[in-house]
Amino acid sequence: MTPLRTLLVLSTLAWAGHAGAEIIDQAKPPARFALLKEGSHHYLRYIREGDSNTPLDIWVREVHFEARGLHIKQRWDAVGKTPSIKWLDSWFDAGSFKPQTHVRITEKEGKRVVEGFVFSADKISGMKDLADNTQKDLLVASPQPAFNFETDIEFLQTLPLASGYEAQINFYHPGGATPPALYTFKVAGEATIAGPSGPVDCWRVTTDYNRPGTISTFWIAKATQQLLRQEGDMGGGKTLIKTLID
User: Which helix (H) or strand (E) holds 52?
Assistant: First the structure.
């Protein structure tokens, strides 16, 4: 088999998806888009290692529906020896998660870094008209239209989660070294966990982020599909935890 034919076969297999999994595309709005509501939520991120818990940051996520479309804003306030602040500003088509633009601004140790991106059907490129954009020359091809990985929590909220459900989503982390790729998320079971206002019945959703041998688990409230908690293995006995505060 020639190298070109081998590449084509591997590409076809990569996009074929898992048997029974729904491949999510941008041709139609997510099945439960109506569950996404305006408002803000606060999460605490910390690392657990044995009996030790080390806080990383407070994470605010805001959802707005505006004339231009769906607008998701985030702010990360990091603690520790080198405090930092990060803002994310993401726009999507009205009534869907088809991404338009994404801006990320980070301030750390007196330095300010601006990154801006434009999502298109076949590529992600740097935002040319954004002042001080360090990603202005970015150009990443996408064989299928990609979704914005930095808004995965809200995206998962809109999927038709149910026992045995499995989805494959073409995600891209803007500016990241990994090109757009299909990531598998599946409902692995059910659980009742503590929420800010008491026990909550949840779907337990898992993914390996395309890193076989690792696992991240999401606890998503059945009634609202709001993320309550996420745990991910960092290796070396460390676990990264995100938990909803309010």
Answer: strand 52-66
Give the range among 11-15, 56-60, 158-162, 171-175 with minimum mean pLDDT. 11-15
Q: How far apart are CA 99 and CA 96, in angstroms?
A: 8
Dist. CA 160–CA 149, nearest whole Å = 19
DSSP codes, 133-158: BTTTT-EEE-SSPPEEGGGHHHHHHT
Q: Which phi and psi (to 5°) does residue 20 adopt?
A: 85, -10
Query: Given this model, what pLDDT does residue 3 score?
Result: 36
Give the Cβ contact number of residue 170 at 10 Å. Answer: 20
Q: What is the pLDDT of residues 191-231, one digit of tens each?
A: 999 988 899 999 999 999 999 999 999 999 999 999 999 99
Q: What is the pLDDT of residues 152-187, one digit of tens each?
A: 999 999 999 999 999 999 999 999 999 999 999 999
162 is written with which tokens? 């149910």
Give yes or no for a contact between 89 and 106, defined as CB atoms under 8 angstroms apart. no
Beta strands in the chain (DSSP E): 22-24, 39-49, 52-66, 69-78, 84-92, 99-108, 111-119, 123-126, 139-141, 147-148, 166-172, 181-195, 198-207, 216-221, 227-235, 238-244
25-40 burial, b if ≥16 CB within 10 A, otherwise e? ebeeebeebebbeeee
